[in-house]
Design brief:
The protein is an alpha/beta fold. The chain is built from 15 helices and eight strands. Strands 3-2-1-4-5-6-7-8 form an eight-stranded mixed beta sheet, with helices on both faces. Helix 8 crosses helix 14 and helix 8 packs across helix 15. The longest helix is centred in the middle third of the chain and has 23 residues.
């Protein structure tokens, strides 16, 4: 099998490492930068997480990457996906290729799920899968196995990917028909990760226990409203990812939530030595989910409206509407509201 991986970040590098171990032919694409700089992975075959064999090749040529792979795995920041698809759609026969989205998020400007962005850019829905679930690169590469999830509009395609990507002692991949729930759940867990970090930074770590069932209830109702299965919120895409997102210090969303309280600032420059705020997916995801909530509530009866107290609280806090010294109490209050939904 030939695998094209669009992206050279830590998860992209981990996927490349694992696909190479399975003896697949791997080509990684990195966007060409205006200053001609290249990632360490591109130039040396290694980063702080992995060292790739020389069998893995690299390119800045997007057309070459699209034409190369039997499967094209996309692993970039979710808010950059539409821009990438605008470039891909200029390539002949791109819509007939098979894509696997290996990232989590919802587009902030439109509220689109990531698979919807591909569909809106002309990709056949039967050629789209999403790969989500718990785990951090550092944990994988230290030998800790996990379970993940692949969903697709075409179950045959999903099961083909599962058979190809499953890896002994690394990841056991399951299947779900509910691509809506899988995408919303995997994106929303990043929002809850920020809430957990805020609780940690406020000294309210015990509140992370109630946060879990409260958020499952909140996101389950949201998924149900948009045509997914509410039970998906209790599976790998959402609840199953909580250990990695709400308790693992390697979680960017958790770290961001904790830092803004401890440092008492939302200033990106002040936080820059500790975290790249632009890579914290939960910030934009909260905005996107609330945009969808508003759109939905405007077209249904009052008693059918979806409430999202925890998501709204996170959005209020990261937009500076709540004093950071009060953030922990604010999240705590909204946990109670969510439990009573």
């Amino acid at each position: 099998m030939k695998i094209s991986i669009l992206g050279v970040g830590r998860w992209a590098s981990c996927i490349a490492y694992c696909m190479d171990k399975k003896k697949y032919n791997v080509l990684m694409w990195e966007r060409a930068h205006s200053d001609n700089s290249e990632s360490t992975l591109f130039t040396t075959h290694r980063n702080q997480y992995v060292e790739l064999s020389k069998r893995v090749t690299f390119t800045h040529d997007l057309e070459k990457a699209i034409n190369y792979g039997d499967v094209i795995i996309i692993s970039i920041l979710s808010q950059q996906l539409d821009n990438l698809m605008q470039q891909i759609k200029q390539i002949k026969d791109y819509e007939h290729k098979h894509y696997c989205i290996a990232m989590k998020g919802v587009e902030a400007s439109t509220g689109r799920r990531l698979s919807e962005i591909l569909i809106d850019n002309g990709v056949k829905n039967t050629n789209i899968a999403v790969w989500v679930g718990p785990g951090h690169v550092q944990s994988f590469l230290s030998g800790q196995p996990t379970n993940m999830l692949i969903s697709a509009y075409n179950n045959v395609y999903a099961k083909k990917l599962i058979a190809s990507f499953n890896s002994a002692n690394f990841v056991d991949i399951s299947h779900t028909n509910d691509i809506i729930g899988a995408e919303f759940g995997s994106a929303a867990k990043n929002v809850i990760g920020i809430a957990a970090g805020i609780l940690d930074g406020s000294g309210y770590t015990q509140k992370k226990g109630p946060l879990m069932p409260a958020s499952v209830k909140e996101i389950g109702k949201f998924i149900d409203a948009f045509g997914g299965n509410p039970d998906t919120a209790s599976g790998l895409a959402f609840l199953g990812d909580f250990q990695a997102t709400l308790f693992d210090s390697q979680s960017k969303n958790l770290t961001f939530g904790r830092l803004i309280v401890e440092k008492n600032t939302l200033d990106k420059e002040v936080l820059k030595p500790f975290i790249n705020v632009d890579s914290v997916e939960g910030i934009k995801t909260a905005e996107a989910l609330l945009k969808l909530q508003k759109r939905y509530n405007e077209r249904v009866n009052t008693d059918m409206r979806v409430k999202m107290p925890i998501t709204s609280a996170v959005d209020d806090i990261v937009k500076g509407k709540i004093e950071l010294k009060d953030a922990g109490d604010y999240i705590s209050e909204k946990i109670t509201d969510a439990l009573n939904l």
